[in-house]
């Protein structure tokens, strides 16, 4: 009992020493009423200031007043989502049918076409790395064979 009265008296002494009542936070200067200082203004929340947010909030309040749940959507929105969903399902089915209708011959042709494209790209890369004099020499050979063929005809 003696300890509790001693600690209580220490607490009251600390309180007496602090004129601000023990508050650790400092008071802002604009409360003093100094006219030279600019008083801070509360910042606007850009989300709440947006038109779409305000319209959504208004719609939610109206639905709440009518007793509609958040789960229920407007009829137009439900119909549009249903159409979009049906369109996606139809497109997926068409793609699957197109894949099934490909014969093995068509698949093999597609593979060969892809291989030829790859080979052409590799050749173009190799030609790009070749020195300039080799490219000029190849062009000269082509022109000389063309002129030689024209003379024979």
UniProtKB/TrEMBL annotation:
A Pfam family of this chain: DUF1151
Gene Ontology CC annotation, any one: nucleus
Keyword Cell membrane (UniProt): yes
Subcellular localization, as worded in the UniProt entry: Cell junction, Focal adhesion; Cell membrane; Cell projection; Cytoplasm, Cytoskeleton, Stress fiber
GO BP terms: actin filament bundle assembly; actin filament polymerization; regulation of actin cytoskeleton organization
Gene Ontology molecular functions: actin binding
Keywords: Actin-binding, Cell cycle, Cell junction, Cell membrane, Cell projection, Coiled coil, Cytoplasm, Cytoskeleton, Growth regulation, Membrane, Nucleus, Stress response, Synapse
Keyword flag Coiled coil: yes
Superkingdom of the organism of origin: Eukaryota
Compositionally biased intervals (Basic and acidic residues): 116-141
Disordered as annotated region, ranges: 116-153
Physiological role: Stress-inducible actin-binding protein that plays a role in synaptic and cognitive functions by modulating actin filamentous (F-actin) dynamics. Mediates polymerization of globular actin to F-actin. Also binds to, stabilizes and bundles F-actin. Involved in synaptic function by regulating neurite outgrowth in an actin-dependent manner and for the acquisition of hippocampus-dependent cognitive function, such as learning and long-term memory.
Name of the protein in question: Actin-associated protein FAM107A
Species this chain originates from: Furnarius figulus
Lineage: Eukaryota, Metazoa, Chordata, Craniata, Vertebrata
Gene designation: Fam107a
């Amino acid at each position: 009992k003696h300890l509790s009265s001693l600690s209580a008296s220490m607490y009251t002494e600390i309180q007496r020493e602090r004129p601000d009542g023990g508050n650790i936070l400092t008071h802002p200067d604009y409360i003093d009423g100094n006219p030279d200082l600019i008083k801070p203004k509360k910042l606007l929340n850009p989300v709440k200031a947006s038109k779409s947010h305000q319209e959504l909030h208004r719609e939610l309040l109206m639905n709440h007043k009518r007793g509609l749940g958040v789960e229920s959507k407007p009829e137009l929105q439900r119909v549009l989502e249903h159409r979009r969903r049906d369109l996606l399902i139809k497109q997926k089915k068409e793609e699957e049918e197109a894949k099934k209708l490909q014969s093995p011959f068509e698949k093999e042709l597609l593979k060969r076409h892809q291989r030829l494209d790859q080979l052409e790209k590799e050749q173009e890369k190799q030609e790009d790395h070749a020195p300039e004099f080799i490219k000029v020499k190849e062009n000269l050979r082509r022109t000389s064979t063309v002129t030689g063929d024209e003379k024979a005809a």
